[in-house]
């Protein structure tokens, strides 16, 4: 009979959720179990780090030079550093709320072994159904459009290798390819994919940097940004979106053997990501300047070489992985809604998940605006999902003296205790509400409407150069 391994976690006083499979003494089963752990079944601190770092950049790497052309070099660098730290802070808050929720529930003998905890459930358990509904709406809508953006990016990238098909046709093809993510059960099973995804992003970032420096500045290059408030706040909001990839933080934490170790993972992942985004965005903007204002995808301006085509292919694979990252929480929500979340049949769950992919596919065909859609999603959805709601939820959860006294995780002393923590949270809420959602929403919507008026909905080939026979 297979035995269960249950380990008590001291910091949160909750138990691990995963069963040790393959303990029947069979040599072949044990060998399969070892292979599974190496390539498939991850839950370590390193797995979580790869997941966070890999999921954070993805296709945004290709639009950051576009943001620099809107912001200017100095503002582009400052906003990356600023939003990188702010995103790490709210990821930390989410991790604290997850630990608090899970500890309270397991003290009540709730067993999560066949259940993946999600952000809306944390809000429900700590603050009630109204918070749950708000969190569910913003999180699901953000992840829906995050998945849409990955499909748009796939079509935009592959077009620069093969322009015999228009971008809309490529969207049809990659929509079908990305639908295969329904077969990946959970974030435990992204171990090898997360590792490969980050290696692919690292290659692409340094390709962009080196290729731009070798190419040099185009003749008559201009660096006139910032020139308009609309463009300025659109670019800033795209960077807000860049460091707002932790809409899947709770699911990544839940996949860890010891989730209480997550606290600094997102910050360390962000620091690594900055070593990729700052050099690449700066170098591409230095080389091409204002040309990026009409070329949201950095690949569009670099000459075709074997290195460029390799970078494109690697980014396509990575976008498939990131699509899975964004869609998996949606799969979980849908499974819970139709009552198949606890089934062990991978095939049954995969078939149940397919309806989630259809609206994503359809929206990618309607709004193929690579670049502008990032800013729109950032201002209207990421601002609340990733920044405002976690900060407010943390303040409300620990508003009473009893809650602060009995908190599982207390604020670090260097923050100034609870007063310092509340001050940080209030700054995040006010800044993102005014600058991210307010000015960013205004600018992003104006820019998005301009794209619709210029190119139209269902456009076959957004920002495509003239086709060469």
TrEMBL record:
The chain crosses the membrane at residues 77-99, 136-158, 170-188, 195-218, 230-252, 264-288, 311-334, 354-371, 377-398, 419-443. One of its GO terms (biological process) is auxin-activated signaling pathway. Residues 41-434 form the Amino acid transporter transmembrane domain. Keywords: Amino-acid transport, Auxin signaling pathway, Membrane, Symport, Transmembrane, Transmembrane helix, Transport. The keyword Ubl conjugation does not apply. It is found in: Endomembrane system. Pfam families: Aa_trans. GO terms for cellular component: endomembrane system. It is a multi-pass membrane protein. Its main location: membrane. One of its GO terms (molecular function) is symporter activity. The keyword Transmembrane applies. InterPro entries: AA_transpt_TM. It comes from the Eukaryota. Belongs to the amino acid/polyamine transporter 2 family. Amino acid/auxin permease (AAAP) (TC 2.A.18.1) subfamily. Carrier protein involved in proton-driven auxin influx. Mediates the formation of auxin gradient from developing leaves (site of auxin biosynthesis) to tips by contributing to the loading of auxin in vascular tissues and facilitating acropetal (base to tip) auxin transport within inner tissues of the root apex, and basipetal (tip to base) auxin transport within outer tissues of the root apex. May be involved in lateral roots and nodules formation. This is Amino acid transporter. The gene is TorLAX3.
């Amino acid at each position: 009979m297979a035995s269960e391994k249950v380990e008590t976690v001291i910091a949160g006083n909750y138990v691990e959720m995963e069963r040790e499979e393959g303990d029947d003494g069979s040599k072949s089963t044990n060998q399969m179990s070892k292979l599974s752990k190496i390539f498939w079944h991850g839950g370590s601190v390193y797995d979580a780090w790869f997941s966070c770092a890999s999921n954070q950049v993805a296709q945004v790497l290709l639009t950051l030079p576009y943001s620099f052309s809107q912001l200017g070099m100095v503002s582009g660098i400052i906003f990356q550093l600023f939003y990188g730290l702010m995103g790490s802070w709210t990821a930390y808050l989410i991790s604290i709320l997850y630990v608090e929720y899970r500890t309270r529930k397991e003290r009540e003998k709730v067993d999560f072994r066949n259940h993946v905890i999600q952000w809306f459930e944390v809000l429900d358990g700590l603050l009630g159904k109204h918070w749950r509904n708000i969190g569910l709406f913003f999180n699901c809508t953000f992840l829906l459009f995050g998945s849409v953006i990955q499909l748009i990016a796939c079509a935009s990238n592959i077009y620069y290798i093969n322009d015999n098909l228009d971008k809309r046709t490529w969207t049809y093809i990659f929509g079908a390819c990305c639908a295969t993510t329904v077969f990946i059960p959970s974030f435990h099973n992204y171990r090898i994919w997360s590792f490969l995804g980050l290696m692919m992003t690292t290659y692409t970032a340094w390709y962009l940097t080196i290729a731009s420096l070798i190419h040099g500045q185009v003749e008559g290059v201009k660096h006139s940004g910032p020139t308009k408030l609309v463009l300025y706040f659109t670019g800033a909001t795209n960077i807000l979106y860049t460091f707002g990839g932790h809409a899947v933080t709770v699911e990544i934490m839940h996949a860890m053997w010891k989730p209480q170790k997550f606290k600094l993972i997102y910050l360390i992942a962000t620091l690594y990501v900055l070593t990729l985004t700052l050099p690449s965005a700066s170098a591409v903007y230095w080389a091409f300047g204002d040309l990026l204002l009409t070329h949201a995808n950095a690949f569009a301006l670099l000459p075709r070489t074997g290195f460029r085509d390799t970078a494109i292919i690697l980014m396509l694979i990575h976008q498939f992985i990131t699509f899975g990252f964004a869609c998996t929480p949606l799969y979980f929500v849908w499974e819970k809604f139709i009552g198949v979340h606890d089934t062990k049949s991978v095939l049954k769950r995969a078939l149940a998940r397919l309806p989630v992919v259809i609206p994503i596919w359809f929206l990618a065909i309607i709004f193929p605006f690579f670049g502008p859609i990032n800013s729109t999603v950032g201002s209207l959805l990421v601002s609340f999902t990733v920044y405002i709601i976690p900060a407010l939820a943390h303040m409300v959860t620990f508003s009473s003296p009893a809650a602060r006294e009995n908190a599982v995780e207390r604020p670090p002393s260097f923050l100034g205790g609870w007063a310092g923590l509340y001050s940080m949270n209030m700054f995040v809420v006010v800044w993102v509400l005014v600058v991210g959602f307010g000015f960013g929403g205004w600018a992003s919507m104006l820019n998005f409407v301009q794209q619709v008026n210029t190119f139209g909905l269902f456009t076959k080939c957004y920002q495509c150069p003239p086709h060469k026979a």
